[in-house]
Design goal:
alpha+beta; 12 helices; 14 strands
């Protein structure tokens, strides 16, 4: 134990004495740490944002998508043609355990009031959606007739502030949507503080218009989703097979999928993990370069410190002592680089969180991963210098010096 402690202290003294060279050798690892920590933190932040949005749908909500999504096969067609129809929802309502079904169409475009414009998520749906996903209203009301064809709109507070200002109640005012006049009947209470990279696609910044009103203006309008709410005493998971069987009477197997929130989150997590590790793998090239830099500096140090090695061995140090001294030194250099990179990453993530819609999440797991990876790099790339130093003959080392 004392031997390890003395070797560690010798490594620290060497780094302090050659601090300029140590700093330069640690820079490569620091740069790689910044890239990895920042990317992983951003990925965790995005994952948290998406998780919250999916959970906002409700635990007893199932989603019918226009494409086949299953293990080993991902063909969602989420942005393309949809073969879903509102009429299929009537058949799904006959399934025991299904409480209500609401069609959703992403209308696109924006909303205009006089000279002001806003571009929130435009959703055409029926009043059944509000029963599945209750909205907190800042003012006004929701429409109640699921078959209404009136041109009315329920707008989010974000869009309301953009169009009318924060101190104006827009209820009763007329806005333009798809070149048609709609009357604002309600304003939802959005949580602006939760703005994030995907807030424009979430349920926090939405303008709702009646499904059948839009259907009159656009007879060929497609249905992008069928949202299914299960009864409180029915488990959503067992309903999936029954709903898929009913949809199979109208559609080809590849034209639809029924997912629970758990299934949807599993898919998101899988895709996020693939993208995250792909990016981390690419940035690991910088980590390799940093490791090579440490190894190069340590090999030079071995040659320059032949006298030190010879003296230590002469006074009783073993090959093992020399090996651990140099391995400790290379590991410390990597950890110092990791610490510098982590500190800079935290600053970068803080700035992104404060001034952009990207919301990185720096966790203790990310910190542990950073130091673990750096320690591994220091150990791996420090092996060759440590072996070479421990193998030096003390007599030859002193004579060369």
């Amino acid at each position: 134990m004392n031997s390890l402690k003395s070797n560690f202290l010798a490594a620290i003294r060497s780094i302090v004495e050659q601090r300029s060279r140590a700093a330069l050798s640690a820079i490569g690892v620091a740069v790689a740490s910044v890239a990895i920590v920042t990317l992983v933190s951003i990925a965790l932040g995005v994952r948290g944002d998406i998780t919250k949005q999916v959970e906002d749908l409700g635990v007893n909500t199932l989603i019918v998508l226009p494409g086949r999504i299953e293990e080993g096969n991902f063909n969602p067609n989420l942005g393309g043609q949809s073969f879903l129809r509102e009429e299929y929802g009537k058949d799904l309502l006959q399934t025991p355990g299904v409480l209500r079904v609401a069609p959703l169409t992403f209308a696109g475009g924006g909303i205009r009031y006089k000279e002001e414009e806003a571009y929130p998520t435009m959703v055409a749906t029926t009043s059944d959606w509000f029963k599945m996903h209750p909205e907190s209203l800042k003012s006004g009301n929701l429409w109640e007739d699921p078959k209404t064809t009136q041109r009315v709109a329920v707008i989010g507070a974000v869009a309301s502030n953009r169009l009318f200002g924060e101190n104006v109640d827009p209820v009763g005012k007329t806005v333009e949507i798809h070149e048609k006049d709609y009357t604002v009947i309600g304003v939802t209470q959005d949580e602006e503080s939760e703005s994030n990279l995907f807030s424009m696609f979430s349920l926090q910044n939405v303008v709702y218009i009646p499904y059948h009103a839009m259907k009159i203006d656009q007879p060929d309008m497609q249905t992008d989703r069928l949202m299914v709410q299960s009864a409180p005493d029915a488990e959503p998971k067992p309903l999936v097979a029954e709903l898929e069987q009913r949809l199979g009477k109208f559609l080809d197997y590849q034209q639809y999928s029924v997912l629970t929130n758990e299934d949807l989150l599993g898919l998101v997590y899988k895709l996020m993990s693939i993208l995250t590790w792909l990016l981390v793998g690419l940035t690991s090239i910088a980590l390799f370069v940093g490791g090579v830099g440490i190894m190069t500096v340590m090999l030079m140090s071995v040659n320059e410190r032949s006298r030190e090695i010879g003296i230590r061995k002469t006074v009783g140090a073993t090959r093992r002592d020399i090996f651990w001294q140099f391995l400790s030194e290379s590991s410390l250099l990597a950890l110092i680089g990791g610490a510098l990179g982590l500190a800079f990453s935290y600053v970068v993530c803080f700035l992104l969180y404060t001034y952009t819609d990207v919301k990185p999440t720096v966790t203790w797991g990310v910190v542990a991963m950073c130091f673990s990876v750096c320690l591994g790099v220091g150990c791996i790339f420090g092996l060759l210098p440590a072996v070479r130093a421990s193998g030096k003959d003390p007599v030859v080392s002193l004579r060369n010096e």
